[in-house]
Specification:
By secondary structure, this protein is of the alpha/beta class. The protein folds into 2 domains: 4-127, Rossmann fold; 135-224, no CATH class. The protein has helices spanning 14-24, 52-62, 77-95, 109-122, 135-144, 170-175, and strands at residues 4-9, 29-39, 44-45, 66-71, 100-102, 125-127, 148-155, 189-195, 205-213, 217-224. The longest helix has 19 residues, at 77-95.
Length: 225
Amino acid sequence: MINTPIVLAWSGGKDSAMALAALRADPSWNVVGLVTAVTTGFDRISIHGVRRTILHAQAESIGLPLVEAWLEPMSSNEAYEASWEMALRNAKKALGVVRHVAYGDLFLADVRAYRDALMMRLGYDPVYPLWEKPTDALAQAFIADGYRAVVTCVDTTQIDAEFAGREYNQRLLADLPTSADPCGEHGEFHTCVLAGPVFRSPLQVSIGERVLRNERFQYCDLVPV
């Protein structure tokens, strides 16, 4: 299997960027597009809270077409699955026959089982290029490889709200509590990647307002410059 077409579930964060780099380094795969869940009303990447304008700038700098899966706020699993099915159908129309979807998941078995079941039902094969790679090593490699990312969302039940808006770097890793995964795989935080090897040019942003939602999730807005 060489240069098999595959689309990547792109969240805009660091794990997606590392998954893309891993796929591009593997001759088995030819990444032909990105698929991203976007929340209507907020007009932002779902969960990560990043503006669509930044999402589109990422896709342009990466050099891949983008397909969006539109979700209502607080969507049910059923609504999410229907939206994802539509997005993959649109991806096939735009990109040709694609039977594989890649995810940046690291080790959560329940999440993988859910994705596996959904992809099987929709007729796709899921691929996990980063699966079970040590997250401390991934975090160090991300920084050493020259990526730049900013924390855009924090689950304040797991780590302090002050991490929102901080750059993902060695100092941040040192400041994380020992209970937190260095890649945030338990949902401790989410990031937006602004520069690195998968980008042709870096994105320029400024730090915007901070908003607490659902009395739990601290968001920090990134504003395109």
